[in-house]
Amino acid sequence: MTASPLTNPDVLPCRSIKEIAYSPVLIVAPHPDDETLGCGGAIALLRSLNCDVRVLVISNGTLSHPNSLKYPAPLLQALRESETLEALTKLGVNPDNVTFCGLQDGSISTQYISAIASCSAYLREIAPQIIFLPWRYDPHPDHRATSKLIYTALGNLNLSPRIIEYPIWDWDPRQRGNLTESEKVTSWRLDIAAVVELKKQAIACYRSQITNLIDDDPEGFCLTPEMLLNFARPWEVYLEVE
Questions:
Q1: Which GO terms describe its molecular function (predicted)?
Q2: 130 — phi, psi (to 5°)?
Q3: Phi and psi for 104 in degrees, rounded to 5?
């Protein structure tokens, strides 16, 4: 095992968006907000270059506040989808280019087989040249299942897009895993200084996840200020497995 590149990300080489400015681009998010947290800067920069950016959100996010009476699952799903569209509009993505699969979060791994056909059809239709996926070894099982879903769907198609993976929960040192020595992983930073303030504005759209908007569920999820700092840097970290 080797140490995660997130242990000391400041030493990773920095790259320009022009190196990955292809079109169309697909951003795949396990939950509504992962796309903005992990790739918000890349999305904004790609759109500034007029790249065709599509976003596929796999789960409905309704387990973030499972006990809320104010926001039962249907209302919470609608809220989280509206937050996603608001955030992505700030980043320059047309709402028509955002697709919600609506799988139940917390158990994507048990549903992904049934979603392979629809994801394959979606991928075949847009034929992305680059796909941004959650890091395949992310500590969250939904993130790992999302990665597996897209890789499995791609296996049914004659497509060979470049796969770029983004970390989310590996930013938490308590959850972070090491890299396996059997895989060659290239890690790098994308310079997003020009759009980092815009990314912060987009993250702020996720009020259900970063504020006490939903205040009637003591077990409800909320991203901590410490965790959010990892996504407010003037660069984003990406990994590519050869």
A1: hydrolase activity, acting on carbon-nitrogen (but not peptide) bonds, in linear amides
A2: -135, 140
A3: -70, 120
- Encoded tokens for 122: 């979606």
Q: What does the alpha-carbon distance between residue 3 and residue 221 come to, in Å, rounded to a whole number?
A: 29
For the purposes of burial, counting CB atoms within 10 Å of the CB of 145, is it exposed (0-12), middle (13-18) or buried (19 or more)? buried
Burial class (CB in 10 A: 0-12, 13-18, 19+), 178: exposed
Angle at 187 between CA 59 and CA 139, to 5 degrees: 35
Name the stretches of the chain with pLDDT < 70: none
Region of 16 on the Ramachandran plot (φ > 0 left; ψ -120 to 50 alpha; else beta): beta
CATH number of domain containing 23: 3.40.50.10320
Q: What is the 3-state secondary structure (H, E, C) of the chain?
A: CECCHHHCHHHCCEECHHHHCCCCEEEEECCCCHHHHHHHHHHHHHHHCCCCEEEEEEECCHHHCCCCCCCCHHHHHHHHHHHHHHHHHHCCCCHHHEEEEEECCCCHHHHHHHHHHHHHHHHHHHCCCEEEEECCCCCCHHHHHHHHHHHHHHCCCCCCCEEEEECCHHHCCCCCCCECCCCCEEEEEEECHHHHHHHHHHHHCCHHHHCCCCCCCCCCCCCCHHHHHCCCCCEEEEEEEC
Q: How many domains does the chain have?
A: 1
120 and 153 in contact (C-beta within 8 Å)?
A: yes
Identify the domain containing residue 211 by its residue range: 5-241
Distance (Å, whole) CA 48 – CA 51: 8
The number of beta carbons lying within 10 Å of the beta carbon of residue 119 is 23
